[in-house]
Structure formats: structure tokens, C-alpha cells
Amino acid sequence: MDLEKQENDKNEETKGTxxxxxVKGAAIGAASLAVAGILxxxxxxxxxxxxxxxxxxxxxxxKDAGMFEWRNVPKPPTTFAKTFSCDVVVCGxxxxxxxxxxxxxxxxxxxxxxxNDETHDVHGFQCATVNSKRVKDAGAEIDPLxxxxxxxxxxxxxVNEDLIRLWAENSGRAFDWYEEIMPxxxxxxxxxxxxxxxxxxxxxxxxxxxxxxxxxxIGTIDFTxxxxxxxxxxxxxxxxxxxxxxHFKTPGYMLTQDSSGKVTGIxxxxxxxxxYKYETKKGVILTTGTFAKNKAMVHEIDxxxxxSTLRAGAxxxxxxxxxxxxxxxxxxxxxxxxxxxxxxxxxxxxxLFGPTPGMSINLLGKRYRNEDAPLQMRPSSLRxxxxxxxxxxxxxxxxxxxxxxxxDHRCLDAINNTPNTIPPKDYATLAxxxxxxxxxxxxxxxxxxxLAGVGNKEGVKIGTYVKRxxxxxxxxxxxxxxxxxxxxxxxxxxxxxxxxxxxxxxxxKKDTQYAKRANLMRPIEKAxxxxxxxxxxxxxxxxxxxxxxxxxKLEVTRSDGKPIGGLWCAGACTGGRHANQAxxxxxxxxxxxxxxxxxxxxxxxxxx
Length: 608
Hints:
Number of strands: 16
């Protein structure tokens, strides 16, 4: 595969690769190696190989396989349509790139921003912070070292520990700085809504959560999708007012370096025959996002996830949240940098009530885990269950569990009144096509639709305000519920016995199976009984989430651990942030990293 074809392939939106296609690609790789004469036993004097290359499908697992070609440094162009000069180039105009641009410009640097698309892109909601002013004013201050220790532990030490401490020590002031350009906080979901997520907590919350299986912290600033984008647009305007020069539809292609290897600028590739050269005094900040759209990189770096998907009979989707093409990772590697040594373990399995801890039942009708766990631990547990599928069982009192549930990613907040807990008027659409009234809470609508679906063998119908509702059934007896869940006779008997045993443990306030937190042991005894089912989504994985190795100054490092020089990284292309991107002691960590590391990268570049 020549480099230009590889570049075109990586930028192409693809529908996916099937198991057959993946193996076929491996066979092609084997055939290529055979033609080149570098398969074991193949020399110039070897007789012609009569056996088809597909007989050696493992040939792709060699250092010469095609999946590694993305690492080959292309020949630099020598002719440039335009040449620009500045202090620093920021490559990528997402949330991290915009913060890096503003930060560098406020330090007096002349900044040029390169962006693949036609405009900047800020999306999502929530931003994690440790001790931002808004959090401190709410009385929710935490110990940064305690957070750092817990974060590292929850990620099984597969992170850059210096990087996590850097974030914990600086995220508060970084968000305060970002918030300076925002309108005064209010409750307009389109513009100014933001508040401390899950705060205030219920009375006596420290006692309630002292035995939680996974420790969580308060510090996330909550936004709606609309207010987060609104503030991102204000950030882009701020960058322009500071003199940042945006070059849209101008993707970074490769870095330029002096004889010592220090980065001196960047080349942008407009098309196969047109290149722009950018000469810098300080260097380049990479904020280019993930590499989920780059087939070669996904196949090489995320091999385990690819094979798991193919074994399940699914397709590799080459997609992720905000999927990008890996331009930053490639440029860094070509310049002598390295990808982080860990691959992320991540998948999606979201039942209707999120992480609310009911009773987890597999397809055999057996309970299989401690339900007091983050939402992102559910798919991890399901990998060891039949069919990769499970049910969460509740009774009519399911809402009693909400104030007791750990403040995890997508936890249902039954206490505070925000646009995310009380959908604005006409914002949400219910199953019967009616709209939200601006008065009822999110869980009120869930309850309303569950009650409307009791006894419906086709399942409870949920409106479009829930993006991934999963399978939901509600029945007046456990036996009827088992039928709706399509449990066979043996699984039904198991299920009824498990519920009976679970209720006995609830009465004793002690889970002798999995040591679930005592105050979460609520019996399943009052109709209607509810089953919320979800399996592992095989097409939602952490493809492309791995980043570039950096030090505690966000400098891209070589294999000897020393910085390349003139090259920094922020946002999703930064390695060492997490081993599972949605398993964290605080929601909104991706945006938290982007805001903080964006600001710091601009500061570090100014000091270089």
C-alpha cells in the first residue's frame, strides 16, 4: 500500500470491516510477503509456492505486515504553495485546541490554528474539575492527592501517574479561567446553564457512601449539550479576538525538525499536489483527537478489541465518540515519539436506569455480580456471561435507590433541579409523541412510561429522550416477567430462587454472595416488577482512544524518555490519561483533561 493510498483510506468514512474482510486482508498481507520472499522458508532459490497464501493467514502478525505501514515516514514535500510564520501552531480546533490557542495567545504568542473541517467543533456536556471556584463555593472541596490515588487505582495503574497529578493540581484554576468568558451561570439550557453535578448531596451522604465499592468525588461542572456548545463558541470568538489565525480545511500532515530533532514547524496537506509550510519560533501543539477512522492504526493498536468484535460476529465500525483520523499520532510517531504502551478497555452496555444497582441476572437466570459498580464495569462483567447480555431487576420501589447510587457516569440525579433532571418544556418526546411539560422530572417520565407498559409482551415503550433504552419489560408477577425475558424453564426456576435468596439477604442487610453495600439491599417484592436488559454493544469500543506518550510538561517524548523539543500534546491524542475512558471517580473527565491540558500546553509553549 503506497502512502497516498493509505492517507486516502484513513480519511474515508467506512461502514465497517467484517470478520471475513479482516481475514481476507490478512491473506492479502501474507500473499504480499510471499511475493517479497520474506515468509519463513522463502528465499530467492525457493521453488514456486503452489499453496495459496490464504493457507498462512497468520502472516499478518509480523513486523512487516501492512498494518504497520502507517509508521513509515513519508518523503517530505519540497515545494509549497504558501509559507506562514508564527510563534506556535495549534493543530486541531476542538475544545482542547481552542483552550491551547487562547492560552498561548494570552501569553503573547502569535498563534495559527489548523483544522481539518470547515469550523471549530465543541460538543458534549460536563467538565470534571478538582476544586474549581464553583465547587469550593458550594462547599464540595476535595483532596487532590486522594483523587489522584483513587483515579490511578481505578485504572489499574495503567496511566501516566505524573499526568493525573498534573491534572488534579491544575484543573480547578483551568476551569475558573475558562469560565471567565462564559455568561453568568443560570438555568437557560441553551446558553448559561451550568452547576455542580450531583450537588447538594442527600443529608448524611458521607455515611451513606462510606462503603461504596468504587469511590466517587464531587467536582464535575454540569452543562447541557447546548450550553456546552454555546460556551465553546464563545471560546472560539475569544481566540479570534486575541488574534489567533484559523486556517480551516487545512489538515496537518507532517512536522518539520532541525538537525537535533527539535520541531520547528508543520506542513499542511491541502491535496495531493498542494502543501503549506508553517515555520514556528516555539513549536507545535497537537490537539487532533482520536484515530478511530484510521483502519491501519486501529488494526495494529487495538488488535484485541478488533478480534473481540469479530469473534462476536460483528463489524469493526471504525468509530468512536468524536472519531478522528490519527493525524496527530502519526505526526508525533514520525517525529520520533511513541504511542502509549496501554490499550484501553472499554465497551458500552447501558440499561434504562444506568448504574442504579438493582439485581443483575444473566440469561441462565443467575445473579452474577455486585451491582454497586460504575456503569462502565457492566460490560466488563458481561464479557464473562452467556451471550454477553444481562438484566437489571427492580420492583415498584426502584426510585428509592436513586439517592443511594454512587455519583457515577450517567447516574440518575433524583435530588437537584436542573435542565438535565427536569427536561425543559417541549424538549423531550415521549413514546406517545407528547412533549415534556417543563415540570415533571426525568424519572417521572420513566415511571409514567413503565406503568403504561405493564403486561405488554412487546416491551415497555420509551420516548426518544432516552438515547439507548435497551430492552424493558414490566409485569405484575415475577413468573410473567420471566416469560417476557424469554427465560427457559430451568432459567426461570433459577431466577425465582435468586430473587427469593436476594430478598432474604435484604432482610438480613447482608449480601453474602457479592458483598453489595448494605443500604442498597432493597427487596424485590412489590409489583410491578421491572427488567431492564442490555448486552455489550460490539460496535462501541475504545477504538482509537490511545494517545501519544508525554511527560509532566505535556512534551512528546522519544523512546529514551527525553522530550523531542518544540512539540506538545493536549486533549484526546494525549496518552496515559486513562485505561477505560468512562470509568472514572468523577464524570466529565474527557472534557476536564481537554480544558486543563489545553491551557497548560499553551503555557508550557510560551515558556519554552
